Every structure is written in structure tokens, then in C-alpha cells.
């Protein structure tokens, strides 16, 4: 991609040089390379060259302005993307603190949310997640600790916004936050959270789950 763009710039530069030399080459071809000592010959030559170079330089100026506007737009887009990615990373760090606290919070049924989550939703099949018994457990857990659901779905909302970078050369903008999540939330807990979210929403939350293997397909 970079090589193609570089070759394009080289070709454009060569075309500009040829266009600038063409009027002079035409004059030499028509009248020869003899230097005249007559002022009127120089005046006529200046008139011809100004008529040839006037429109050419105008087009060249427009081309330069167009490239400047394009470069400025690319710079603005890059600055916006960097600000967006930085905000997303900051938000994920904020929600990771929240999810860690929510997992360790006690629940009404006894035990922490992490313990109940792992006991009910770890290592489940898709058919089990569709069962009414697990659905009711998901509702009870949500009633006891609503922050668990809202925080985990907020993290996924951010990941969805970053997923555009996933298959690009800037894929690290997506995978780095995922690695941060894994550092705070172990894979087993993340899979249980995915299963819990899916069970609670009855599969209506459409997202690309990152932890539960049964929901990745």
C-alpha cells in the first residue's frame, strides 16, 4: 500500500515536470535553440509562454490546494481516532475497576457475586443457558447485583466500537484492551460473565463474545 502510494507520487511529480517543460520544448522544436537579440522576439516568446503556463500553473495551484486539504483532513481524522481510542481505553479501565468490585460484592443469597457467577454459569452448554432454571438464577443475580450486568455490557459496548480496528494494521487498538480485561478478569470468570449476560438477555444481546467458547460461534 505504501509502495503503491509512493509510486503514485513519483508518477505525479514526473507528470508535472513534463508538463512544465513541454511548452519550452515546443518552442525549441518550432523555432530552434537560437538566442535572439531582438526585444520583440523576447516579448513574443514571453507572451507565448505566459499563455501556456498561466492555465498550467493555475491547475497546479489547485492541485496543491487539493492535496493540502486532503492532508489536513487525514491529519484531523488521525487526531480524532487517537482521541477516540484513548477515551475508549480510559473508559475500559474505569469499568474494569467497577466490574472487579462488583464481582467481589456480597449477594443476598450468600457468597460473592463471583462465587455465584462461577457456580451457576461456568462451563455451561448452550442448551443449559436456554433453560428456565438458569434464566431465573440470572434474574436473581441481577436483582442482587445489577452493576454486574450493566458494567460488563458497557465493556462490550466499548469493544464493539473498537472492533473496526480488529482486522486492520491498527488491530492492537482492539486487542490491547482485551488483554487488559483478561489481566483483571480471568478467562473462566469472563466466560461465566458472557454466559450470564447471554442467559439474562435470552440471546438478544448481539455481540461478538470474547470469553465464552460456546457463544463464539
UniProtKB/TrEMBL annotation:
The chain crosses the membrane at residues 7-30, 42-66. Keywords: Membrane, Transmembrane, Transmembrane helix. This is DUF4760 domain-containing protein.
Amino acid at each position: 500500500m505504501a509502495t503503491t502510494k509512493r509510486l503514485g507520487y513519483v508518477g505525479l511529480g514526473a507528470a508535472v515536470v513534463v508538463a512544465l517543460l513541454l511548452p519550452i520544448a515546443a518552442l525549441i522544436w518550432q523555432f530552434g535553440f537560437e538566442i535572439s537579440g531582438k526585444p520583440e522576439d523576447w516579448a513574443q516568446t514571453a507572451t507565448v509562454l505566459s499563455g501556456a503556463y498561466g492555465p498550467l500553473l493555475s491547475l497546479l495551484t489547485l492541485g496543491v490546494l487539493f492535496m493540502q486539504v486532503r492532508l489536513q483532513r487525514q491529519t484531523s481524522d488521525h487526531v480524532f481516532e487517537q482521541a477516540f481510542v484513548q477515551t475508549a481505553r480510559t473508559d475500559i479501565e474505569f469499568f474494569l475497576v467497577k466490574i472487579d468490585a462488583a464481582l467481589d460484592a456480597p449477594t443476598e443469597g450468600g457468597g460473592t457475586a463471583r462465587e455465584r457467577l462461577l457456580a451457576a454459569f461456568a462451563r455451561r452448554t448452550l442448551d443449559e443457558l436456554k433453560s428456565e432454571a438458569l434464566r431465573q438464577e440470572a434474574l436473581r443475580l441481577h436483582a442482587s447485583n445489577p452493576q454486574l450486568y450493566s458494567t460488563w455490557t458497557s465493556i462490550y459496548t466499548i469493544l464493539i466500537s473498537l472492533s473496526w480496528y480488529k482486522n486492520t494494521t491498527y488491530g492492537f487498538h482492539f486487542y490491547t484492551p482485551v488483554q487488559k480485561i483478561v489481566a483483571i478478569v480471568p478467562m473462566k470468570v469472563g466466560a461465566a460473565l458472557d454466559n450470564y449476560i447471554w442467559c439474562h438477555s435470552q440471546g438478544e444481546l448481539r455481540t461478538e463474545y470474547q470469553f465464552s467458547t460456546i457463544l463464539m460461534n
